[in-house]
Structure formats: structure tokens, C-alpha cells
Amino acid sequence: MALMITDECINCDVCEPECPNDAITMGLEIYEIDHNKCTECVGHYDVPQCRQVCPVDCIPLHPEHVESKDQLMQKYKNLTGKSS
């Protein structure tokens, strides 16, 4: 399942550099997560790094982009070009 950033975001700029997939970018008003790039850090880390650093806890799972760990790992492999 990809993550999303809610409107509680305070634009503190700490999440964007933590994303290993470059899935976080500044939107019109708040940061946004590209669900096509978000792997919840599967393949990189044990837990989503953006959620670890967010001071206002505004990065929940995206209910419209449900993915299993296997699907997230496949997305990681597709994004990085790694096959194992």
C-alpha cells in the first residue's frame, strides 16, 4: 500500500530527502507522495523513513492504493532495476 500525506502537513521539509525512491515532491500546497514510486521503503529499509521523521504524524497508508509486501517488493525491483 502506498502512503499519502494529509492536509495536516506543515511543510517542514524533512520527509522529502528521506525518501529513497524520490516519491515525495512539493505539491501546490503541501508535499505529495507519488503512489507509483512509493514502496513504503520496502527493499530499502524496514520501516517507511518519511513516517519516522514526520513531526506531525500526517503520513498514513493510502486507502486507494492497497498493495501487498510482495507487490511493493516488485515495485522496488522495477524502480531500481534490481532482480533479486
The name CATH uses for the topology is Alpha-Beta Plaits
Rg from C-alpha positions?
A: 12 Å
Global mean pLDDT? 95
State the order of secondary-structure elements, H for helix, E for strand.
EEHH
With helices defined by DSSP (H or I, 4 residues minimum), what is the helix count? 2
- Estimate what percentage of residues fall within beta strands: 5-15%
Number of strands: 2
How much helix is in the residues? 10-25%
GO molecular function: 4 iron, 4 sulfur cluster binding; metal ion binding
Organism: Polynucleobacter cosmopolitanus
Pfam families: Fer4
InterPro entries: 4Fe4S_Fe-S-bd, 4Fe4S_Fe_S_CS, PSI_iron-sulfur_center, YfhL-like
Descriptive notes:
With 84 residues, the chain is of the alpha+beta class. It has one domain (16-80): 2-Layer Sandwich (Alpha-Beta Plaits). The chain is built from 2 helices and 2 strands; from the N terminus they run E-E-H-H. A two-stranded antiparallel ribbon has the order 1-2. The mean pLDDT is 95.
